[in-house]
Write a structure and sequence with these properties.
Largest sheet: 8 strands, mixed
Mean pLDDT: 93
CATH topology of the largest domain: BirA Bifunctional Protein, domain 2
Strand order of the largest sheet: 6-9-10-19-18-17-14-12
Shape: elongated
Radius of gyration: 28 Å
CATH superfamily of the largest domain: Bira Bifunctional Protein, Domain 2
Distance between the termini: 62 Å
CATH architecture of the largest domain: 2-Layer Sandwich
Low-confidence stretches: 332-337
Number of domains: 2
Helix content: 25-40%
Bound molecules: aspartic acid
Number of helices: 12
Amino acid sequence: MQTRIYIKDLSQHIGEEVIIKGWIDVRRDQGKMIFFDFRDVTGKVQGVVLPKPKTPVAEGIPGSQSANLHDVGSKVRTEWVVAVKGKVNKRPDRAVQKDKQNGDIELEVLDIVVLNEAETPPFDVGSEGKEIGEDVRLKYRYLDLRRPRMQKNIINRHKTLQYIRDFYSKEGFFEVETPNMTKSTPEGSRDYIVPSRLDQGKFYALPQSPQQYKQLIMSGGFEKYFQIARCFRDEDSRGDRQPEFTQVDIEMSFVVQEDVMAVNEKLLIGLVQTLYPEKKIQQIPFPRLSYDEAMKKYGNDKPDIRTDKNDPNLLAFCWVIDFPFFEKAEKGGNGDTGGGTGGWTFTHNPFSAPKPEYMPDLLAKNNIGGIVAAQYDIVLNGYEIGGGGIRNHTPEGLKKVFEIMGYAPERIEKNFGHMLKALASGTPPHGGLAFGFDRLMMLLQNEPNIREVIPFAKNGEGKDLMMDSPSEVSLEQLRELGIRLAK
Ligand code: ASP
């Protein structure tokens, strides 16, 4: 059996007989001749079944049944999976299609073996897909992923992740995994919870981010950490939110705010220049605005500072810094996040440190509304694509934050005892940041929402329409967990 050749490599095999494997993208039956576009993950090529095949039955593909190539050629349909034996011919000059992949060659089909048939797809997989209802695309996502736009999105997502992994590794970061079954972290949202069977009545929480673990990794002495981390937040549906999403999460020891900003600015510039050379970064170094400036000038803290909003290839990054540490808590806030009785809650997360000059205020619980946090957001074209902060690395500082939020001492001990203990055990000064990776990919791929860059996205109501999830579980499963549903 000859080895299979990828379609992108066919032009290196002119004059040879080769085997390709893939899908029937297009089939045009002209009676005497049948034209095809064949497709694999690397691209497309035109093929033709000539009126009289030069070789009646080609040898070489096990299971070949094609005593009559024409019959098979007339039978196969789009999206059928085939192995094709063919001769790579150069096209005559007048038939060359310059701008098309493989536009200068054609595969003269000698044999077709059907590897799998396909039901008629519920929609066209060759189009951009924008004309198709999103729910039906998500229900048949495995088909939707075949469209060229989705192939490009997912493959570029892969390339971007590879770039990021490589970048941080070269900068001396270690990729460290953290658990998905953990305990509630206060990050401003509701937790997804997982009932324990062995310890009935108790629950794990899925992490809203690896915040506490990554700080504990600093305690653990690794100094520079990164992770491509899945995060889970139970929020009401919104356009660019998903119940689970991906963060590029980092943390560094012995750094100040400038160090964290510098390494991540370097990452973004390198990433765009390497993988998206057609795009232009509006300003390097990235401009910086204070929270107050942004609010005054743009009325929000994620300003779109593009000078030309019609240019799909313009990337206007900026940093927003100097956020207030605390804001007045809304009554009946989300889940366990604010929840204190102090009337204040954090604006980013409770682990941030104040800027050094405001540390005395924090420790004295003075000027609470005026304390500025060592916190920074990175904004791209009006979207917050990341944020982070320098952390409180002493137990005193962190304790004060919880006190200001009105947590009782027992609650601080119960929920954050492990953090306070770690901070009291030789934790270095540290800080970090996390990127919302789906949003970054959405903007780099010029997509209108993050579902277009997530392979198996949930719909706007948080449902996985393909798997039909969430769904009921059996009474037996519930019984094992000690759970009875309210009627
Ligand atoms: N854990 C934070 C977040 O999810 C990011 C950070 O402060 O590093 O927003």
